[in-house]
User: What shape does this take?
Amino acid sequence: MKRILTIKAEEGMVVAGDVYNESNHLVIPRGTVLTRDIIDRLKYYAVFDFYIEDDKPIKLASYNMDDLERHIFSEYKIESGGYFRRIKESEQFREFENMFQESVNNISDCINAVVTKSEEVNIDQLLSSVKKITDDFNPDVSLFDMIHCIEGYDDLTYVHSINVALISRVIGKWMGLSPEECDTLTICGLLHDIGKVMIPIEIITKPSRLSPTEYALIQTHTIHGYNLLEKIELDERIKLAALQHHERCDGKGYPNKLRYNEINQFSRIVAIADVYDAMTSNRIYRKGICPFEVISIFEENIDAYDPKVLFIFLEKIAQSYVNAEVILNGDLEGKIIMINKYALGRPGVLVGGAYVDLSRQDNMEITALM
Assistant: This one.
């Protein structure tokens, strides 16, 4: 057994002990064979180092893709399967991308006006382009897939804010909120990270692990956001979303370590949308995580989120991929045929004519959509 830095981790290494994050949540169990997605997961949870077995790494089988194609997909930050590549090549995605660009321009202009000129928030301007996207595209998971394919923007804060607004709006519709409530929830998503404009850009975009000082500074964006919006005539839930979107129902969030009943409902919704987008979106330093792995991560940390909102959200996402073809670890290909209600991230899959219940197979998981 030896200790290694996460940045030195290689595919095929075997983990010698359970690995936990700073919040003492299990990230990966002992005996896990590292894959590219698992290494990305360790980096996402800011795991600095861990122990591996001394034996040589297990040689992992590659997917049916030659090295050149793998390199091209890596450059464009698309998952190993062709699922997201096909979306990016579609006419529907090109239409979506044009509308998305308009939304980026609108939110950029609005936030700059609020921060530099102390102007009022132009609610109609902010809502118009986002509502056009959800009106023109069905409010379902296909919208999330197109969000996953968005890339090429320099300022990811605006892109992330639009993604969170779109996801929050869809969650609101799934929960049966009124049109007026969905509009307010959309603005919550658009402005939830407004406080990040007060944080140095080199810290916001830093790909490596933040120092304790840098992490403490980033956490202040929630307070900065609330202070920026406090004196503006806005629905109080919008201001609270900026302040509370990193609070967790188990009391382990920030800035005030609030618990479930102390956190506004819209803040609890935005919190889920925020984390989902952060994990599934492509970044310069890592590719987005497969939706089923994200579902599993949420299920492992269920105490941190509003269970009613989370179950509706995760079940809708998982159910939408029934009949989807997937890649599993070990170079296996399969087709999702059934969702496990109590283990949404581990569905029933048809593999080579045999039914495999992933909820009963600890050594198998979905790594990509084909």
